[in-house]
Amino acid sequence: MTTQPMDPAALNRRMIADILAAPATPPEEGGYVLRVLETTGRRSGLPRRTPVGLLRRDGKDYLVCPDRGRDWPNNLLATADAAVLVGNERRAVRARAVDGAEAADVVAAYVRSVRAPWAVRAFALPENPDQADILDRMPPIIVFRVD
């Protein structure tokens, strides 16, 4: 018996439901936790939810996306106010895109902490990338600090 791959929208809905059903655990320094990001749709003005990995680095929280063309980063660029959800907790945040060395350091920490091989491959980085490797490949990647 073969199984059909789940479509991305269905997978996202399932992940969102699982994250919202889970107890909230704070991120550890240098690690990430799964959260639901709620943005405002830049065209529709409606709330949009997506599962994300929230990384804690140097006491700050970050969101990293390997493809700045996705909807959620573009929604954040249009409206920086958003919410991070887990379990029954909702935290209002303001997202600010960061670049340069700060962004490269966050990407390096993110790919070190992520355990899903498909998620790491999405960044198209060499194994154990240094800051120069990451900076060379930053154009499609976007990093947000969330306060």
From TrEMBL:
**InterPro entries linked to this entry:** F420H2_quin_Rdtase (IPR004378), Split_barrel_FMN-bd (IPR012349)
Q: Which domain of life is it from?
A: Bacteria
The record, for SUPFAM superfamilies, names: FMN-binding split barrel
What protein does this entry describe? Nitroreductase family deazaflavin-dependent oxidoreductase
